[in-house]
């Protein structure tokens, strides 16, 4: 093992030991995991895999028959999806799982699926909007499933567990843990006479100045300086400014606050500096985002906050292009990052609850994640490409993935980037499970659109706040 590679594992090992010290009295939904040497990825004892019946709670029930999984590409997806699906179904040879072979889609599409003759038994749901469906009593509480499978919810990151917990009851098992970091293009910084290492991401005045120095726009944008990624990441800018867009319980819209207005004004100013929003978006639309001529390789952007999974895209397509990765921070210098991802829920009223429970717990089980991560690593090694890992949302799985599978010693820039991601996962926040999660997200998007189209920020946010709160109140009633 190289000296560089060892840096990731001790952090995770120490993290699990710290968490183990948090006794059952801790009020956090993610509290009180057992000792890491005694649990498997779902908290079941003996390190057993689903279906082996060796004390892990998975062999005591009848896991057979048919279930329908909505919102997931079980056989047509990428390696991480298919490898986990294959791992789980191999454990349960008497279980037949049919999948929608599609993403979750819109809420209306999901509700339409519930009216179909082949009604889903389980669903793979984005955590940002799951509160909408929990409030409608569409998902079964997982208390029985958690007990049946011996799942320790403390093995999942707190931010993810909070997103699927309402009034102390867990309604879904977290899957994936997407967080955000700054990705800076070293050559673009150097072209402007700057060093990306010196870029202070907590200093909004410096961000504004660097944006002006990096961008190239003379009637037509040919290089974006700093892309703030709004409306997608507006919540992160708001947190950086000491505010929040919605209350912790998801029942009060906080869009009409000074912190939100200031954050939106700042982020939008970075776009306006390029001449116009239309010119900015038109140029960004030309990028080969997932290809070898991506915006980093083509020096089309100086920097932007981005989900950590994009490191895998760069590693596979342009591993030799130099980047600097920094954690996103608040204006006070404290690390903060927005987290999201999907989750597995059981539809209320399913006639095969035991099988549904076994399937969803297996899909987020440590063994399934490790199998998928190893297959991804093998494929990358065969292609001669760096492997930046799989961010599972499961602490025990991540410890193995980044301690034993991921080896980036030959790619120091990606090794450093991955370590930054791993170190900062505990600093994440996510949207709470609001009863109007989808409507709230739409209100935010509409507000940003109105600002872009010329409406003043205060009016746009006031109207959005009223729309969001009305939706929350209506859902609550």
Secondary structure elements and pairings:
Layout: H1 8-20, E1 65-70, H2 79-91, E2 95-99, H3 107-114, E3 122-126, H4 130-135, H5 143-149, H6 158-163, E4 165-166, E5 169-170, E6 173-178, E7 180-185, H7 186-191, H8 204-214, E8 216-217, E9 221-226, H9 234-240, H10 258-272, H11 277-284, E10 301-307, H12 310-317, E11 323-327, E12 337-338, E13 340-346, H13 353-363, H14 366-383, H15 395-405, H16 412-423, E14 428-429, H17 437-452, H18 457-476
Helix pairs in contact: 1-15, 2-14, 5-13, 9-10, 14-15, 17-18
The coarse silhouette is globular
CATH class of the largest domain equals: Alpha Beta
> Low-confidence spans: pLDDT under 50, at least 5 residues?
1-59
Radius of gyration: 22 Å
N- and C-termini, Cα separation = 58 Å
Number of DSSP helical runs: 18
Mind explaining what this structure looks like?
This protein has 477 residues and is α/β, with parallel strands linked by helices. It has 2 domains: 5-178 and 341-427, Periplasmic binding protein-like II (D-Maltodextrin-Binding Protein, domain 2); 180-338 and 436-476, Periplasmic binding protein-like II (D-Maltodextrin-Binding Protein, domain 2, 3-Layer(aba) Sandwich). The chain has helices spanning 8-20, 79-91, 107-114, 130-135, 143-149, 158-163, 186-191, 204-214, 234-240, 258-272, 277-284, 310-317, 353-363, 366-383, 395-405, 412-423, 437-452, 457-476; strands spanning 65-70, 95-99, 122-126, 165-166, 169-170, 173-178, 180-185, 216-217, 221-226, 301-307, 323-327, 337-338, 340-346, 428-429. A 5-stranded mixed β-sheet has the order 2-1-3-13-6. It has a 5-stranded mixed β-sheet with strand order 8-9-10-7-11. The longest helix has 20 residues, at 457-476. The radius of gyration is 22 Å and the shape is globular. 50% of the residues are buried. The model is unreliable at 1-59 (pLDDT under 50).
């Amino acid at each position: 093992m190289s000296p560089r590679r060892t840096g990731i594992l001790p952090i995770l090992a120490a993290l699990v030991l710290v968490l183990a010290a948090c006794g059952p009295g801790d009020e956090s939904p993610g509290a009180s995991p057992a000792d890491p040497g005694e649990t498997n990825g779902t908290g079941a004892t003996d390190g057993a895999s689903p279906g082996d019946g060796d004390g892990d709670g998975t062999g005591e029930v009848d896991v057979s028959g048919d279930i329908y999984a909505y919102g997931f590409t079980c056989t047509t997806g990428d390696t991480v999806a298919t490898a986990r699906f294959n791992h789980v179904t191999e454990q349960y040879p008497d279980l037949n799982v049919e999948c929608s072979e599609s993403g979750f889609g819109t809420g209306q599409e999901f509700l339409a699926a519930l009216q179909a003759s082949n009604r889903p038994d389980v669903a793979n749901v984005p955590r940002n909007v799951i509160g909408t469906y929990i409030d409608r009593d569409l998902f079964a509480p997982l208390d029985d499933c958690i007990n049946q499978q011996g799942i320790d919810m403390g093995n999942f990151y707190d931010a993810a567990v909070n997103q699927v917990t309402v009034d102390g009851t867990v309604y879904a098992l977290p899957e994936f843990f997407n967080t955000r970091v700054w990705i800076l293009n070293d050559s673009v910084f150097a072209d402007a006479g700057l060093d990306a290492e010196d870029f202070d991401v907590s200093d909004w005045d410096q961000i504004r100045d660097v944006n002006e120095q990096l961008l190239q726009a003379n009637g037509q944008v040919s290089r974006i300086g700093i892309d703030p990624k709004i409306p997608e990441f507006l919540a992160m800018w708001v947190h950086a400014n000491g505010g929040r867009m919605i209350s912790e319980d998801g029942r009060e819209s906080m869009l009409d606050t000074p912190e939100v207005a200031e954050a939106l004004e700042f982020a939008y100013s970075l776009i306006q500096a390029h001449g116009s929003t239309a010119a900015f978006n038109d140029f960004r639309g030309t990028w080969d985002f997932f290809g070898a001529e991506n915006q980093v390789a083509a020096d089309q952007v100086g920097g932007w906050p981005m989900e950590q999974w994009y490191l895998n895209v760069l590693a596979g397509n342009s591993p030799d292009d130099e980047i600097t990765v920094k954690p996103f921070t608040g204006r006070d210098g404290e690390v903060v990052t927005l987290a999201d991802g999907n989750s597995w829920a059981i539809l209320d009223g399913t006639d095969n609850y035991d099988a549904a429970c076994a399937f969803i717990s297996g899909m987020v089980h440590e063994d399934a994640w490790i199998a998928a991560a190893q297959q991804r690593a093998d494929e990358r090694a065969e292609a001669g490409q760096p492997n930046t890992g799989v961010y599972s949302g499961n602490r025990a799985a991540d410890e193995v993935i980044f301690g034993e599978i991921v080896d980036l010693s030959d790619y120091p820039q990606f090794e450093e980037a991955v370590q930054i991601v791993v170190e900062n996962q505990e600093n994440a926040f996510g949207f709470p499970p609001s009863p109007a999660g989808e409507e709230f997200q739409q209100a935010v998007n509409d507000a940003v659109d109105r600002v872009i189209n010329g409406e003043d920020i205060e009016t746009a946010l006031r109207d959005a706040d009223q729309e969001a709160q009305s939706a929350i109140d209506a859902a609550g009633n």
